[in-house]
Write the structure tokens for this entry.
Amino acid sequence: MTIIETPRIRLEKASKSDAPFILELLNTEGWLTHIGDAEVRNLDDAVNYIARGLEKSYEENGFGLYKMVLKSEEKAIGLCGLIQRDFLPEIDLGFGILPAYERKAYTYEASRGVLKYAFETLGKTKVLGFTSVHNTASQRLLQKLGFVGEGLIKYKKTDEDVSLFGLDEERFIRNLAGEVRAVSKSPTHSFSKKIQPKIKLLKGLGIEGDAHMGKSVKHRSRVRKDPSQPNLRQVHLIHEELLDELKGKGFDIKAGEMGENISTRGVELLKLPQGSLLKIGNEAVIKVTGLRNPCSQLDGLQEGLMKALVYKDTQGKVIRKAGIMGIVEESGWINQGDKIEVVLPSQEHLPLERV
């Protein structure tokens, strides 16, 4: 029975027939290291774990840890759900996934669905989460979901200190929906764009009155190479948090000055997968195509800006932070203050590349 559904995941109640999967999951290195040894050594142990743990919670609490089924493979890949613990004042979010399916944002996607279910369906006002102090991966995931640290507590089962996080409904809603902070356009190929009270998006074209509007490429560097290329850079978005980061490094950059059309807050633009949809305001929809590939004109704005936005990490990978590009899927007006809803693609999530 499906309890929660997301673009790529179905969350279902586990049953005793899932014993082979439970046996595998609970004996992975990640589960044993960060969650603990449940002493599940064979199929009989797995059946008992399901009956005394998962099924018991479904019956007594009306919720529990659900089986994460990857739709594309019709395969159980992890557990994600809500747990009622006697040493915590609120329910907590729990998750674990098979190693082969890590780093694909499946747990993040499933957890968002579970949290939405907790607040909207179960009527909860707060959800907790805790991790071992060394489990930085789970801590980052909780923070990405909007959780904030609440200090250390003693884990009753082991008497060890664990890191406690909390998320209330208001913060979850704010984290779920981003916000438009400013809109800009320019009728010429100027580097910076002028702030506008509102902008109009035209399906398949871009922003009305902007120099980069059109079905084929309009950026001059692309036009010189092949003017018949499709325009994947109709709309340029930058997250306002980047401006905060730059300010901390001594730069004074305002919205529109780096050539973006839309300044956002509350959406991790650079982490969106290819093909994500941004539903903005009442009608407008933008499909994310890739990363902006900035040029040396940035240094004309402020010296050293290019180096701050394009650099190599410790593994030698090129990091581009100057925003993302998209195409207009649905026409509509966009105003400052409009809410942004992110819809992740149903297919495999591919990281953004430069376009």
User: Anything to note?
Assistant: The mean pLDDT is 93. The chain has two domains: 2-175, 186-343.
